[in-house]
Amino acid sequence: MAKKIIALLIIIVFAFLSVPAHAETPQPPEIVGPTAVLMDFTTGQVLYDKNMHKRMYPASTTKILTAIIALEKGKLDDVVTCSENVTKIEGNSIFLSPGEQLTLEQLLYALMLESANDAAIAIAEHRGGSVENFAKMMNEKAREIGAYNSHFVNPNGLPDENHYSTPYDMAQIARYAMQNAEFRKIVSTLHYQIPPTNKFDKPRDLWISNRLLKPSRFHYEGADGVKTGYTVAAGQVLVASATRDGHRLISVIMGDEGINIWTDTIKLLDYGFQNFSLVKVTQKDEVITSIELGKGGFKLPLIAQKDFYYEVPKGKENSIKTEVVLKEDIKAPIQKGEVLGYIKYTLDGKEIGTNPLIASEDVYKNFLGNYYNEKEKNPIVHPLKIIFGIASFSVAFLLWKRQKIRQRKRFIFSNKY
């Protein structure tokens, strides 16, 4: 009997050992493209990396940066007058003419839907005065965004050995641009029509080139941007964005071939949505803790300075730990919004971020050592402290009065004799 039980236990143990363990880190997909990155829009976390810092030609994805600068520096109803330079550019165009006038909004749709290189020139000259000056603005903006391994010499992405970027940098640029509501509207529009102008007597119909958005075999649920690109030197380039249940991912592939650009992008986006969850750990202005000040028991609530999100593998949504770290020797006066500590976040024992803890209100301290907030201009003091204060003042006054009387008596006595 005992032998049968032992044999049964051995079988059970081997049965458990034969079950494959669940991998905490999801297996990344295999893609054809030589360089790629998958980035979470909210946090900037990199979920997939394939040579993401390698310098590549960005082709027409350059126009993402051109568009966001135009939106930030100009107004949609600005009237742009085209120069002769719009006829001297190769590649995609909407056939602009010298002296033709369009709004900046119309040119932006031509830029992002039809990838019009002549529209890029018109925008650059309108906002920068010249292509060269606009390129300087592009490089300044790229550095501001955090795209430190990029350099731009034109607004359209036509090949130039000094015009380059990386998948990581383009993801950062796209992440920044997608925070702009007008930009998001433009890059998710399938069709736009420019009415006749002073130089063109027919309407121009513009159609988006992004197959993830169009009704096609590569249509992707939740796709909402961003930009395609192609030159012989650059190969196929695609900066893509997709959002599901408030969870947005940015995918960038550079140097791909043919339809692989679409299948590779879909693999990356599927990998992100199927294997990761965006967790909101802390909400801005959420009361995290409170500190007690003084002997009177005044409590100051401390709130989170900002939201804190983090991407975690599915199944680990509740695995993020928090720890409150406070400054030492906190004293009044304290200003509302003053940083008094921070929240430390850890996942599997590794620190993944911090969030400042700030004072929720102003705090003052009166001469009796009592703490009070900005709403209590005349704070109620503990009755015993009031009595003690009055008694102390009375005793001090009597002693002072007594001293004065003695001094007066000495003065009278000395003058008398």
Give the SSE map.
Layout: H1 2-18, E1 35-40, E2 46-50, H2 63-73, E3 79-81, E4 101-103, H3 104-113, H4 117-128, H5 131-145, H6 167-177, H7 181-187, E5 191-194, E6 204-207, E7 223-231, E8 235-244, E9 247-256, H8 260-275, E10 276-282, E11 287-293, E12 298-304, E13 308-313, E14 320-326, E15 339-347, E16 350-359, E17 363-365, E18 371-373, H9 383-416
Antiparallel strand pairs: 1-2, 1-9, 3-4, 5-6, 7-8, 8-9, 10-13, 11-12, 12-16, 14-15, 15-16, 17-18
Descriptive overview:
With 417 residues, the protein is α+β, with helices and mostly antiparallel strands. 32% of the residues lie in helices and 27% in strands. It is built from nine helices and 18 strands. The chain has helices spanning 2-18, 63-73, 104-113, 117-128, 131-145, 167-177, 181-187, 260-275, 383-416; strands at residues 35-40, 46-50, 79-81, 101-103, 191-194, 204-207, 223-231, 235-244, 247-256, 276-282, 287-293, 298-304, 308-313, 320-326, 339-347, 350-359, 363-365, 371-373. The protein has a five-stranded antiparallel β-sheet, sandwiched between helices. Strands 11-12-16-15-14 form a five-stranded antiparallel β-sheet, with no helix packed on it. The chain has a two-stranded antiparallel ribbon with strand order 3-4. A hairpin with a 5-residue loop joins β17 (363-365) and β18 (371-373). α2 packs antiparallel against α3 (104-113), α2 (63-73) packs parallel to α4 (117-128) and α3 (104-113) crosses α4 (117-128). The protein is elongated, with a radius of gyration of 34 Å. The N and C termini lie far apart (125 Å).
